[in-house]
Queue: 4 jobs
Job 1
Amino acid sequence: MMPFSELIRNATARNKSHLCVGLDPDPEKFPDHLSKDINGARTFVESIIDSTSDLVCCYKPNCGFFEQFGWEGVQMLEELRSMIPAHIPMLLDAKRSDIGNTATAYAKSAFDVIRADAITVNPLLGRDSIEPFTIYKSKGVFLLALTSNPGAADFQLPNDLHYQVCDFASSMATNCPEVALVAGATRPDDLREIRERFPNGLILVPGVGSQGGELEETIKAGSRHDDLGLIINVSRAVLYASSGKDFAEAARDAASHFREQINNAISATA
Amino acid sequence: MMPFSELIRNATARNKSHLCVGLDPDPEKFPDHLSKDINGARTFVESIIDSTSDLVCCYKPNCGFFEQFGWEGVQMLEELRSMIPAHIPMLLDAKRSDIGNTATAYAKSAFDVIRADAITVNPLLGRDSIEPFTIYKSKGVFLLALTSNPGAADFQLPNDLHYQVCDFASSMATNCPEVALVAGATRPDDLREIRERFPNGLILVPGVGSQGGELEETIKAGSRHDDLGLIINVSRAVLYASSGKDFAEAARDAASHFREQINNAISATA
């Protein structure tokens, strides 16, 4: 099975894109003509994929948004790998955070049942919460290193905690080269330090778009020595670019715009 | 809708029990005569519930173990609230860890779709990751305060982090009286401090049984001023007490044994 990083490299080469589109089907935001149930969700997600799949390097379905539709949402999650063209990898945003045989069960769900090519994991429970995923050697395992939400200040966590996660990921990478990181885009200085401590792997950067990180700064700060090594995620700004019947075209225009912005920023910082 | 703590109080009174049985359907451990698929899982879980429901104060289905069966496992999770007698509350062990509208979607899945009476949450992303659950006023929201897994040492988290979680839960409890804690049973000194900092709410204590915490010490350390205020969880030692055709009876014997042990320990420490 092809390693996740290679799937990304191939999709990037084919579509000239470092853009990942997050699939967060939120019935409150569906175009008016779609039903707010599982049927509407299916039409919505299929249309988004059809209209953007030549513009992205990855799709990132967000578990919670599917689970809210109940078992039918999970059934759709299982069908997603076939709905997405085979040459575009699928990264499951699950942020699972459990240990031992529970983590093993989550890994089985993500990789054997849903057939995701990669997953996001909250790493703070330590290696017992990560290794059940990394034993799937070819799968990407993205450790949450940095979030930019206000509530992150509710606990006095060490200032260097996200660097500890980077160092931990680096130390794992010898045996598990598909270990990767998630790092919010809002603090480029942090991203620079993260890249220094984690020089070789992929970094997923959410928060561009509706959260407004600065693209050029992000790319400058997070690029790898050999190539970008970043997956830039945009969700809402693509999915909900229009609430009319033209939502799929509007999503295509938005994705096209972001792809170009990213590529321009790469050229500008080269 | 009745608050979770009251559901627990009523079930405890009725069954004279502080025992919670964790529902972790693991096909590797099913009795030999059951199939290792969703049908085996359904028979297994139904039999366990039927044979123990007069001995427990709560059931704790563990999401991952259901999700590993794919959408059919999730469908079963949705049927579980009806399979469990109405007077026994159901606590969904999900350890979700996400923010904003993703957390809202997870809450919708847990409370509106699966109709759980309570959920476990990893609180370290802060209030943004908790409030989408606590707005369901009657539902129990159990914050993970202390784990006893070896990997917990992989990051240099503050020694008092679990106390910070307790203080945080206490401060939330004014507005959200159904906020509760999860605290591993292996360190009674910690549990004593946790109870001092979180005097009024429920504490779920896993790790009794196959992880071998000392029951009397645990009860002494964690009891509330007015009543126990503890939910003692046992999973494997009940579920997999026998791998033969007598598994349901063996589970009943084990649950009965644990209920008695707990009640004896309460009497001994009174």
Job 2
Amino acid sequence: MISASALKALREIVGRENYLDSEADKLLYSYDGTPMLRQKPDAVVIPRSADVVSKILRLANDEGFAVVPRGSGSGLSGGSVPVPNSVVLLFPPMNKILSIDEVNLTAKVEAGVITARLQSEVEKRGLFYPPDPGSANISTVGGNVAENAGGLRGLKYGVTKNYVLALDVILPSGEPIALGSESVKDVQGLNLRDIFIGSEGALGIFTTITLRLLPKPEHSVVMMMPFDSIATVGEFVAETMLARITPAMLEFLDRNTIRAVEDYAKLGLPTNVAALVLVELDGYKSVVEAEAQKIAAIARKLGASSIASAETLDDATRLKLARKSAFSALARLKPTTILEDASVPRSKLPEMLLKLEEFAKQESVLVGNFGHLGDGNLHPTCLINERDSDEVRRSERFFERAFETAVKFGGAITGEHGTGLAKKKYLEMATGKTQVDLMRKFKQILDPNNVLNPSKMFDIESLFRSKCERKIARPT
Amino acid sequence: MISASALKALREIVGRENYLDSEADKLLYSYDGTPMLRQKPDAVVIPRSADVVSKILRLANDEGFAVVPRGSGSGLSGGSVPVPNSVVLLFPPMNKILSIDEVNLTAKVEAGVITARLQSEVEKRGLFYPPDPGSANISTVGGNVAENAGGLRGLKYGVTKNYVLALDVILPSGEPIALGSESVKDVQGLNLRDIFIGSEGALGIFTTITLRLLPKPEHSVVMMMPFDSIATVGEFVAETMLARITPAMLEFLDRNTIRAVEDYAKLGLPTNVAALVLVELDGYKSVVEAEAQKIAAIARKLGASSIASAETLDDATRLKLARKSAFSALARLKPTTILEDASVPRSKLPEMLLKLEEFAKQESVLVGNFGHLGDGNLHPTCLINERDSDEVRRSERFFERAFETAVKFGGAITGEHGTGLAKKKYLEMATGKTQVDLMRKFKQILDPNNVLNPSKMFDIESLFRSKCERKIARPT
């Protein structure tokens, strides 16, 4: 429990109207998008300025409580789940788009801006912010930067990190720093900026973010095609790459997922196929049309029976609905949905998918697979009942084997969701102890009292230090 | 001086045939591409494997000498200039291209591979490695990663960092680690990989590097056009951006540079104009041709008297020669050529260029300006005689004012050359003390004895610790 005096000081910093501590509020902010993780905070506050964030962190260092920054809470690794003795900071109210510069192709925003709102604002000006996490309609840019969010356009356009130019950050000590610059080219000193991107709220809190934009593609086409085997899907990806085509989106759904989606959304999908592949091509109209023909030819050659194609926004949205509703559709099958995101090199995808099917059978858990074929980022989704402890154990074994295989194939235990609480126990297996120790030391340099989003990604024993010890260690 | 016993142990580690210590060798490796920086090493060695690099670094920690990794020595910030009591490690002999994967679009190379060789090898397969530093014909991939090298294609394709997937690194302690993965999507733990990119040889030594590749553009056009004023050049850049065109190359030469080039290469350039702008467009033929027409229309509207255009490789190379020979041409005018690379947001370029002309006049130094219009990365080049101490002082004042202005405009003191020895004294002005202190702490965590390329970017007082103190501090 945080002391009453500390909470009183906190309330004075943020103002009564920005201070929430009813049981309902604590319950509401006790979890995020990650299943089976819950912890009530001692209080929830809305910081209205960088200066307030600073003051809160100074107080946290003085009083020895933890601070957990939160965007929209859509994260899938527990990054914004509170820890014991913590205060949650809500950023959605800090949601100004400060500038959109059409010559420098940059946008400067507050951390709480919703990603989809930024996308539509820049698109009105003929510009384009490519990162497109599945949560874009609700997630914040700050949360996206904290998790280095990926999404559907990774293959052609990369991830959030590739679009962050500058960050205004409040360090765990409460000190503000400005990382990066508005120049696309900036190599002064060590690249501190990029270690803050994807730091899952543990190294600093972002207040404003300057992003790089692109011109909006002139045209796009979405195509959907069924394949009879996972191996053929692999061949399709390989032949697309060998044809030197880089789709903006290259997604798939496996049989279990297709059936769940069809059952849920009634889209008239073929339920007797091994996989459905979705392709989006964007760019200049003439190029997109030529590439669409090549893609169709490759698919037909590999036996795709029917190829749906959409050029209008409405038709495209309808086709994408199959992929977009995958998670919700699967979620209906069982009380608990565990969505993971191991990634492997593109060429290892078919092998990885067959392994996942094998592991699911052996552990007798219901698994649906879908995800980003183009960048090798899979979303094996385990459907269980968290009250069935044996099923929970079997699902854990399934994921453990899945992660080990991903690493063995030269991939990663997480491609875009982050490590957080959900995957911290696998981190050392994936990166080795030396790297996790290095990460711990970097965290300790920035946050000696371990007040900022502690115990995410990895544990630090100083977390268990008493408040007075913390005071001794306070940076001067 | 490194002790005779330490040098003997070093010779045994690398083998006599890989150990150089003649006065000629020491002189040959006492400098790099940066003017006015010279320091003889105690020895120069060729490590033939990662294991040998490991052993050398362990010895350096035991014996308390410094290790300076060196690619081709083409760096322009002194990154590979030896320090007192140092051994230079030469990487060009580690030059195997280990694999080129046409489905995953990756290349795995040893650190000593020459960048242009990698480019031509992947282009033979219809692939493309975009980073294109001016030194590409001689610089190594390892050196490019160490400096996060930029180049001519930054606007459209970004810099070296955007293409590094995985790094095999030997830490200063001698311990090997593997950073990143072959997956394009990888967010496990903190992003350690990217702080090693651009770390100027001070955090670790790269042995193998896995790079991301793109499909090779189908077609390209190079255009050259003169403008009567710097302000018009700014309008040209702005209108190009507003037309949503992203050239692969957008370069310029100012009057002084044009005259030097014409005098040197006799290309028939117009010497009575304020600036020459070079544009390269690449992509699908139909798109490139349409964009070329738009660019020409914008240029004509802004008064460009003549527009040269080249579609064949030979013609394009001829046009590019004006830009490529800028440095050599300017270098002929005076004994000493100081090439810098401040960067500013694109829209600030004209203002910045006028400032540079003003500073050059006020400090009465001869300055030629050229560089990367598209990404705001300028190369003010000061031509002096280093034996004229007053002229040296005036050139220093010129650059100091240039860097302060770049930072004031939201830019950086270095866009692509790095901080090294040449710009370390400006680093704190550019990033603030808090950031430099953080950089120091990160360096100290990785290199407590400060043996690896010490005193580059910033100084660390432990550098001046005695050998025995170093031994005490040795990591266990």
Job 3
Amino acid sequence: MSVMTINIERNSGLFHLISRNGLGHEVVTDADPGIGGTNKGARPTELVIMGLGTCSAIDVVLILQKQRQSLNDIKIEIKAVKEKIETYSEFREIHMHFHLWGQIKANKAKQAIDLSIDKYCTVAQLLKKTASITTEFTIHDTSKNG
Amino acid sequence: MSVMTINIERNSGLFHLISRNGLGHEVVTDADPGIGGTNKGARPTELVIMGLGTCSAIDVVLILQKQRQSLNDIKIEIKAVKEKIETYSEFREIHMHFHLWGQIKANKAKQAIDLSIDKYCTVAQLLKKTASITTEFTIHDTSKNG
């Protein structure tokens, strides 16, 4: 068991909020101007998808490290589809495109990404309760530029 | 159906990442120094709890507005307990303490918070797949200072 503490304060307007973790790291959110927001930060549900991508990025970096693959850089593009269910929404389809720079074998990249989404990433296991998560990857072999 | 786009890039070190939504709003994350992180941002799973709190804050503000309650400020303190399940973790217990400033009737505050957690907040409905969410609230009546 581990305990997490989050404190949320209003910064301005109706919905411009600052969330802080126990170490004081800040995340800024706001609501859509359509409901009275001032568009000064990400939307709350976007934080969940950012949590998915960053959690999975950590897994992939760690697993490729253990597999002695030389990873120089990583980017992830995510598209997430939400469906309105009466009063709230559910994530339905999430697609993650991993871009990996370095000398990395394709089968090792696939294994690292699959392990993250199937077993290690806490946010992925949560989102899979309502959504299907699909992945693809592109290896940008930077050895050619060396 | 609505589509969300998130792009994640590495900023420094192994795990210091910047996530951007479609409008360019940035959220900074990093991993724990224990696994090689540099502690420059929130942890990925913390973003999910920040998503819960900020999503619920928006609901509560909107519902109190409809109920013609005068809300001057809002803060939320959240404690979330995660349990390790073999390779990943699941949220188990989440407690949210809402602080509301203004001239607000207690029954209206309770109703707004309950409606958010039971029906409106998308992130709450997701987290309830594995966690129980409990709430309490404190009304700080600022009319006395007027």
Job 4
Amino acid sequence: MSHRIWARYAVRTSQEPQRAAEVIAGEQSTGTFTPIPGETDELRERHAARVEAVRPAAGGWHELEISWPLANLGPSLPNLLATVAGNLWEVKQFSGLKLLDLKLPPAFLDKYRGPQFGVAGTLRLCGLSAGPVIGTILKPSVGMNPGETAALVRQLAEGGIDFIKDDELQSDGPHCPFEARLDAVMRVLRDHAQRTGKLVMYAANITGEIDEMLRRHHQVVRAGGTCVMVSIHSVGLPAFTALRRESSLVIHGHRNGWGLLGRSSDIAVSFIAWQKLWRLAGVDHLHCNGIANKFWESDESAVASARECLKPMFDVAGKGCEIMPVFSSGQTARQAPPTYAALGSADLLFAAGGGIMAHPGGAAAGVLSLRQAWEAAVQGIPLEKYAATHAELRSALERFP
Amino acid sequence: MSHRIWARYAVRTSQEPQRAAEVIAGEQSTGTFTPIPGETDELRERHAARVEAVRPAAGGWHELEISWPLANLGPSLPNLLATVAGNLWEVKQFSGLKLLDLKLPPAFLDKYRGPQFGVAGTLRLCGLSAGPVIGTILKPSVGMNPGETAALVRQLAEGGIDFIKDDELQSDGPHCPFEARLDAVMRVLRDHAQRTGKLVMYAANITGEIDEMLRRHHQVVRAGGTCVMVSIHSVGLPAFTALRRESSLVIHGHRNGWGLLGRSSDIAVSFIAWQKLWRLAGVDHLHCNGIANKFWESDESAVASARECLKPMFDVAGKGCEIMPVFSSGQTARQAPPTYAALGSADLLFAAGGGIMAHPGGAAAGVLSLRQAWEAAVQGIPLEKYAATHAELRSALERFP
């Protein structure tokens, strides 16, 4: 198995399931829609994809496991996509098809670098001995100029925040150019670090063309920053890999666009499979949505994604590519206890936008309310009880009922 | 309007449609889930997305038109994705959401190069005065070594084919490394050109990391080739743009993976919108599926995509970014007349794999049968009638009933 690529699918089809599995295996390796002379038995033996398992699943679906010889494509993520995904979603025989999981041979580790910082590196750079990292998103998403952005960052830094990120809508628009924003924000954060000893991690959204991303990464390094943010689906794996090769910073992976890939009830990919590609490519943080989020996703699904981020994806010591899951989307102090309970860990980045900025006491009180909520969660004290002696948490619970 | 980005959506929602449109406009510009201090009226005035139209559509859906000031993001394709798509598919209020179309301000033309060859350049390089370009996909998709691949290419070239492409599953696997395959194939094609004056266009699948793609592109140039193939969804826009900037060859865009984006009945993007991004980035050919294809897509949808490829996407003379649509997937001589009738043009690449290789008379007869079918189609002669005096077409019609 260690030289084979392995994928698990759920399919819905009126075909006999074993036959359906063979259609996938054929379409994605040696076959086409009609027998042709070159497809010899010997060639099939060496290169055909193999149906490893077929079993019934709930709701009339079936689960299939299929494997490919690595020799068909080599350890290449872009070409892996054409093999395990590619035209599969086009196949008429399937009224539903989901890629559920992937297992890759360790040969991929010779080519891709995996995360450079992950959980431990992020905590260290944030000056924390344990999670969670408390973070926020700069809002309004668009419209603030560099000076207004920096003023907001000052407020948040003084509020004691660990992590601040640009919105995914804010990268290098003419109204808030990347370089001017970076300069203004990092001046504030360096000053703050000088005074307090704490350098807030700023995930500067460098999403753009490759030359732009590399230039901006180097600008962040020169400005004394510790993190860059990339919208992974806007950028694609090869551009991401090119960035990772040059990067000396934490890479915060934003998954906007994910719904298009993962939400459909019939044609979809599971984030359990998808996140492995990005971890191998070298992301350090990945957005996993949050509990009671403002979006469509169920709590179970968000938590399963986050747990997966913390699990090794290769059985190779020190090379499991574990990363830090990011909880966000409509998060407030309310979600700390259920998040801690579901994840079984505080190794996460807990990001709130409105949940901090809309706190009646302002940003500092908003940050404090989240820390208090996590203290309560980790100590197993009910929020309402902890709020009795912690005013900021109390206001947060009133503001976000 | 010329400084605004414009998008059209179909949505299914239990909300009041005008309100739903405002949710999109808010989420994708200045808003978040709760009012926050910085979102002033003045900021909203300058930067908020605008609801341009709301109207009922069939099946309980509504169509929405929304526009954004270019100043929010600048002419950046990766950041455009975060704006017009991004988190939109996550919004709970929509049980269905499709991005139907896009209109971009011409400022994007200052940054992106568009297609370098398009229809006219492709026809010229293939030595044709008119379309269609008759093409094929090397099959079996995987398993042939470079020598076996070249032997098949010789057969096809001698059969009079215009265009040969690698399968999307074949890029640089250990069993058929890119460089050895390119050398073997181009030796055959150069010899053939020397003898006949016709250089077959070979779309060498360079899909991979950026450095690999650039290196392979340059190898194709040195080998005297005229075309490279890229799996666009494996590669992403920024890597594609980096390639286009360096490219002196026709870029054949393979859309494998498209089903994941376009097939779902509820969460999807239309190829009408999607292909514009890739044309602007500089693809010369794009796969559009084919009539009576082996996949799920309807003929109407495939034809609409192909017609769109031939239509200007900017009202700027000479910069419409028109490209050559590729018809493929289970194509045989049978599909020539309905394809010509539906497209209203022969400016296309007509690619058949099994439809050529499985012809009873071999590859040469397979190619000839397709040319004959297109002669009949363009002249308005029924296939069966034309077959009476054209043996290869006759065998093809018997083989593919």
